[in-house]
């Protein structure tokens, strides 16, 4: 008797699992139901691509069952053609349908890849609502630390750790970098993910269309504290965002270079904190890996290299490096000599407003580069210019 009951219960287990499916209706699929226009376009791209692929997958699955049932061994009425080997109509269906779907997917992906380019400034903040020329995007400088996130608001002159506040219906422009290893900056409700790499700067544009509290995290493994590398994201109205900025400025604290070097040390499960003031050009120093006083910035080094080097005068212009990445820039000497070129006089890096990607985007069709062909010159045909007459 117990064995019969166990067998009957085993039969009804699949039905019990099916009964749990309605409970999944309460799940919040933020990727397919985001709060930002860019993320919504990306979610629609996923749905459209999936639907196009199901146009061929679903009929194949249905026909598999139909053919297996119709041509089963017990069905004596099914047509039996042992010498059948070709059907032009069937070949057209088999090859034409997938080919058309691939063409549609390719065109859709090509257009979406350009329109949803993370480096491309936003041309709209909602369907049918273009970005006004009078609206200035909110700029946020993002730095991936071990293991926390630093957000710098250069226009507002404030900064925060593991807390990001943004106004709704305003374009947001992220400038993203990292202090040590590669991470991935991802806010599913706002836009797609993009990598944060040391010594480099990546960009991301997005917009929130409704208020609420969301979450962001790193989507790329970066060490022991990676699991807790999450931050709160607040989508606020204009008045609430202004109040948040005012409260941050009233809270005190300054993020200068010395404070950043302390903040940069590896730490886990860091609570949210704010800074009322930020040292100017701190983010550019982080990107150029020259936060330490006196250390040469990468843009200086590249400028010197482009000019042919510093010559003999630069041979002795080196200093001991007491600041390494492994132990949060600890101390010690001996590993690879631990020396670096001392800073030379140079111009500061260009401000973000002077960057070419700050110009407004348009919605003209994507027609390719369209660059004119350069005019032919004598050098193009291998000819050498005539020597100048000597006096």
Quick take:
Keywords: Cell membrane, Electron transport, Lipoprotein, Membrane, Oxidoreductase, Palmitate, Respiratory chain, Signal, Transmembrane, Transmembrane helix, Transport. By secondary structure, this protein is an alpha+beta fold.
Describe the structure.
This protein is α+β, with helices and mostly antiparallel strands and 391 residues long. The protein folds into three domains: 26-77 and 88-116, Helix Hairpins; 126-287, Sandwich (Immunoglobulin-like); 293-348, no CATH class. 29% of the residues lie in helices and 20% in strands. It has helices at residues 2-19, 37-70, 88-115, 238-250, 257-263, 282-287, 298-306; strands at 124-126, 129-130, 138-145, 148-153, 158-161, 163-167, 172-178, 183-187, 191-196, 202-206, 212-218, 230-236, 254-255, 273-275, 277-278, 318-320, 339-341. The strands form five sheets. Strands 10-7-3-4-5-14 form a six-stranded mixed sheet. A five-stranded mixed sheet has the order 6-12-11-8-9. The longest helix is centred in the N-terminal third of the chain and has 34 residues, at 37-70. The model is unreliable at 327-336, 352-358, 363-371 and 377-391 (pLDDT under 50).
């Amino acid at each position: 008797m117990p064995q019969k009951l166990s067998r009957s219960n085993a039969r009804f287990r699949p039905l019990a699992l099916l009964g749990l499916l309605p409970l999944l209706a309460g799940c919040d699929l933020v990727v397919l139901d985001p709060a930002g226009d860019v993320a919504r376009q990306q979610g629609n791209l996923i749905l459209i691509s999936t639907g196009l692929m199901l146009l061929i997958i679903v009929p194949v699955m249905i026909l598999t069952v139909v053919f297996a049932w119709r041509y089963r061994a017990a069905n004596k009425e099914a047509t039996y053609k042992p010498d059948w080997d070709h059907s032009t109509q069937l070949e057209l269906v088999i090859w034409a349908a997938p080919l058309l779907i691939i063409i549609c997917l390719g065109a859709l992906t090509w257009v979406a890849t350009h329109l949803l380019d993370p480096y491309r400034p936003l041309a709209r903040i909602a369907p049918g609502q273009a970005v006004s020329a009078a609206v200035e995007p909110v700029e946020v400088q993002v730095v991936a630390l071990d293991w926390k996130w630093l957000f710098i608001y250069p226009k507002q002159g404030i900064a925060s750790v593991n807390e990001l506040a943004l106004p709704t219906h305003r374009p947001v422009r992220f400038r993203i970098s990292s202090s040590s290893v590669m991470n991935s900056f991802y806010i599913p409700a706002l836009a797609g993910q993009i990598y944060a790499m040391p010594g480099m700067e990546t960009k991301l544009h997005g917009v929130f269309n409704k208020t609420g509290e969301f979450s962001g995290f790193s989507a790329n493994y970066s060490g022991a504290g990676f699991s807790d590398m999450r931050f709160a994201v607040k989508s606020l109205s204009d008045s609430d965002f202004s109040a948040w900025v005012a409260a941050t400025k009233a809270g005190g604290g300054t993020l200068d270079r010395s404070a950043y070097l302390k903040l940069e040390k590896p730490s886990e499960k860091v609570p949210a904190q704010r800074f009322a003031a930020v040292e100017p050009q701190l983010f550019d120093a982080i990107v150029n890996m020259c936060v330490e006083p006196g250390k040469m910035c990468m843009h200086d080094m590249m400028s010197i290299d482009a000019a042919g080097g510093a010559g003999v005068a630069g041979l002795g212009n080196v200093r001991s490096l007491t600041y390494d990445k492994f132990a949060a820039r600890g101390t010690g000497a001996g590993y690879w000599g631990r020396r670096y070129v001392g800073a030379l006089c140079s111009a500061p890096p260009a401000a973000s407003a002077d960057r070419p990607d700050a110009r407004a985007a348009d919605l003209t069709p994507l027609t390719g580069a369209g660059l004119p062909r350069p005019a032919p010159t004598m050098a193009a045909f291998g000819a050498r210019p005539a020597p100048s007459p000597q006096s």
